[in-house]
Every structure is written in structure tokens, then in C-alpha cells.
């Protein structure tokens, strides 16, 4: 027998053919490693609302928020579950990219090898934001103040090693100023601190920060994509602000534990692709600040996860980022 057949056999034995054909016979647990209301949670809830009917008329998919460590607690939990399709996850760039890159000694899973890769959901840029009461209205003003102030500015993200942490660290590194990093547990906590002006700036996912930008409690100075975002067309890119080639985008993937049988992975991928092809879902994701992804396959999803992990490792090498240091 080929090695691939030998590796697949245990998973197939745990999920007989009749179980695959009748799938799903009970609710599918969809793990999200962040608090309700964050960008990953928003994207996950929008997706499963439309993905479930494409699996079967009576299919149910329920969100299971398992928070902590920038999404890594939820991701690790998924690796310990049976590969039967009844535990999936909407993973983030933090849990599958930046945490393994920045905190390799604390992440107890392989972000590529330990998962079944199903589909790319979508993503979007980060925002460099300041409190609505901040005197800074441009990125240059923030940088100049950071360089000339008597004390380093306080900045925050939704968790050490997360994508906000890497983005803010790369910004400060390339701008040439020192800042004091304050980790929070989740984007909602960061944005509440922003509302109270307890921090000077942050790097947050657009989908999480957008409601706070609309109500004026946060002010965006730049987006981290190479082009301006349609939700905030007046906000310049980092590149326009003088940071050539600065591009970091967050993303969400649908994954499961390693070993889900290939026919079931293909079926889950089709359901996700059918859902993401619906104009209504694409519009709702876009309105929430999540740019829906182009069609993906399990193979292209795995390749994307591997390439993004390497990109974040290169950022860690450039900045010299270590745990507990901004």
C-alpha cells in the first residue's frame, strides 16, 4: 500500500461510508478562538448561517468560542478532536500564522500539518488607529510625537503574538521609534481602552474596529493593505504614508483536525464555496469589514496557510520580536 493510503486508513475506519453519506447527523461544532463580536467570530457566524443549508436541509452548525492566547487555545483544542467532520474551526491569521511564528515555544501544534484544510473564508487589512480624542490626525503626526516625546507611547493589540502585535511591532520598527506594548485579551477590550484613551495607538483588524471608527471613538490613520479599502476610502495606505511595501492582511480559514477523510473534506469545501458564492453573504461579509475570498480548494487553502506562516516568520526575523516585548 502507498504511504498516503496507510495514513488515511485510521480516519476512514472511524468514519464508515454510511456515516459520510448521512453526514451531518448531529450539530457541527465550529470553534472560534476569540470572544463573540470580534472579526473572526463575526465572519464565522455569517458563514455557518449559509453553509449549513448547503450540507443538508436540516444541518446545524453552532459556534463554540474557546478564547485565549490569540486564538491558539481554540486551535489546539481542535487538534485533539476526532477527525469526523463534527468539529471544525474558523481559524485566524493569529492562531495559524503569527502565534506560531512569534511564539514557537508556546504553541503546541503545527499550524499546517496538524489540520485538515477546507476553505479560505476571507480577510481584510489592519488599521493603525488612535483614540478619537487624540491630537494626531495623520500617521506622520503619530510617528513624530512618538520620536519626540519624553516617554514612549503606549500601544495595544488583542494579544501577544497575534497579528495586531506583529503589525504594530513592524510599524514601530520601520518608523524607528520605541513604544511600550500593552497586551489585551481580545479586540473588544482594546477598543474599549481606545474609547477611554488609555492607550496612544493600536493595530486592529478592520472588521473589529470599523464600528468604533463610525462612532468616532477611534480614528484610523492608515490601512495595511496596498490599496485603500472601500469601507474607508479616505484613509491612506501605509505605503502612501511612506512605508514602501508594507502589507499585512488578516484572514480566516475553515479547518478541522488532521485526518478528516478526503471525500468529507471535499463536501465541506463545496458547502463553503456554495455559501461564499451567494451575493447576500458576500455583501454581509463586506459590510462587516471582511473581504470574501475568491474560490479555494483544500489544496490551495493548505498552500495559502503555509505561505502566510512563512511570511510572518520573516516579519519576526526582521523585527526581532520576542514574547513580552513590543
Question: What does this protein look like?
Answer:
The protein is an alpha/beta fold and 326 residues long. It is built from twelve helices and ten strands. β5 (154-157), α7 (163-175) and β6 form a beta-alpha-beta unit. α4 (72-79) packs across α5 (93-102) and α5 (93-102) crosses α12. The model is unreliable at 1-13 (pLDDT under 50).
- Within the CATH hierarchy, at the fold level, what is the topology of the largest domain? D-Maltodextrin-Binding Protein, domain 2
3D shape? globular
CATH superfamily of the largest domain: Bordetella uptake gene, domain 1
Class from helix and strand fractions: alpha/beta
Q: Helical residue percent?
A: 40-55%
SS element count, helices:
12
The CATH class assignment of the largest domain is Alpha Beta
- Radius of gyration, in Å, reads 20 Å
Tally of individual domains? 2
Distance between the termini: 51 Å
Q: Provide the CATH architecture of the largest domain.
A: 3-Layer(aba) Sandwich
What integer is the average pLDDT? 90
Biggest sheet overview: 10 strands, mixed
Poorly predicted parts: 1-13
Amino acid at each position: 500500500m502507498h504511504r498516503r493510503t496507510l495514513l488515511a486508513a485510521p480516519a476512514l475506519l472511524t468514519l464508515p461510508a454510511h456515516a459520510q453519506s448521512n453526514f451531518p447527523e448531529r450539530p457541527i461544532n465550529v470553534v472560534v478562538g476569540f470572544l463573540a463580536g470580534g472579526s473572526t467570530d463575526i465572519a464565522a457566524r455569517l458563514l455557518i448561517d449559509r453553509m449549513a443549508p448547503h450540507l443538508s436541509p436540516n444541518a446545524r452548525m453552532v459556534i463554540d468560542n474557546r478564547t485565549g492566547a490569540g486564538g491558539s487555545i481554540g486551535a489546539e483544542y481542535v487538534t485533539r478532536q476526532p477527525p469526523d467532520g463534527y468539529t471544525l474551526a474558523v481559524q485566524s491569521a493569529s492562531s495559524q500564522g503569527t502565534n506560531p511564528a512569534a511564539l514557537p515555544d508556546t504553541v503546541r501544534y503545527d499550524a499546517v500539518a496538524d489540520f485538515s484544510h477546507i476553505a479560505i473564508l476571507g480577510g481584510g487589512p489592519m488599521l493603525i488607529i488612535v483614540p478619537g480624542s487624540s491630537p494626531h490626525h495623520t500617521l506622520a503626526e503619530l510617528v513624530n510625537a512618538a520620536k519626540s516625546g519624553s516617554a514612549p507611547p503606549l500601544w495595544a493589540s488583542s494579544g501577544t503574538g497575534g497579528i495586531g502585535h506583529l503589525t504594530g511591532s513592524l510599524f514601530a520598527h520601520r518608523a524607528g521609534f520605541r513604544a511600550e506594548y500593552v497586551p489585551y485579551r481580545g479586540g473588544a477590550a482594546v477598543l474599549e481602552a481606545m474609547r477611554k484613551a488609555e492607550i496612544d495607538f493600536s493595530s486592529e483588524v478592520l472588521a473589529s474596529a470599523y464600528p468604533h471608527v463610525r462612532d468616532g471613538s477611534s480614528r484610523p490613520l492608515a490601512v495595511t493593505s496596498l490599496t485603500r479599502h472601500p469601507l474607508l476610502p479616505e484613509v491612506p495606505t501605509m505605503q502612501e504614508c511612506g512605508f514602501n511595501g508594507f502589507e499585512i492582511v488578516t484572514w480566516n480559514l475553515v479547518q478541522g483536525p488532521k485526518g478528516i477523510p478526503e471525500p468529507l473534506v471535499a463536501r465541506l469545501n463545496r458547502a463553503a464555496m456554495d455559501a461564499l458564492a451567494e451575493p447576500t453573504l458576500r455583501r454581509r461579509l463586506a459590510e462587516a469589514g471582511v473581504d470574501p475570498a475568491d474560490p479555494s480548494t483544500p489544496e490551495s487553502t493548505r498552500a495559502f496557510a503555509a505561505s502566510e506562516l512563512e511570511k510572518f516568520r520573516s516579519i519576526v526575523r526582521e523585527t526581532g520580536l520576542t514574547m513580552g516585548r513590543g
